[in-house]
Amino acid sequence: MSDDSSGRKNLRMPDDDQVFGVVTEHLGGNHVRVRCADGETRLGRIPGRMKYRTWINEDDVVILEPWDWQDEKGNIEWRYEDQDAEQLRREGHID
């Protein structure tokens, strides 16, 4: 666990080419609509490695990596657990 009493964990943060997002809609198959922290709404693709191990639901906080060749789409790289998402909200990373 973390060494301070607030229960704060060091959470995975987006790389330079990634953004925080909140899933707003499940579009079926392996696609979701994601409202990103940079103000864009993108089509997120759930990669095969996550598809069956990590269930992604509406209002989940994720890291999305926009595609170089199509900025309005991207891959979901990570999904935060509920308590981790709360921490990100408290710290002001997402609203």
From TrEMBL:
Keywords (A to Z) from UniProt: Initiation factor, Protein biosynthesis
Single GO MF descriptor: RNA binding
Annotated function: Seems to be required for maximal rate of protein biosynthesis. Enhances ribosome dissociation into subunits and stabilizes the binding of the initiator Met-tRNA(I) to 40 S ribosomal subunits.
Xref: HAMAP family: aIF_1A
NCBIfam families: PRK04012.1-2, PRK04012.1-3, PRK04012.1-5
SMART domains linked: eIF1a
UniProt name for this protein: Translation initiation factor 1A
Family: Belongs to the eIF-1A family.
CDD domains with a match to the protein in the record: S1_IF1A (cd05793)
Species, as recorded: Halolamina salifodinae
Domain S1-like: 7-81
Domain of life where this protein originates: Archaea
PROSITE patterns: IF1A (PS01262), S1_IF1_TYPE (PS50832)
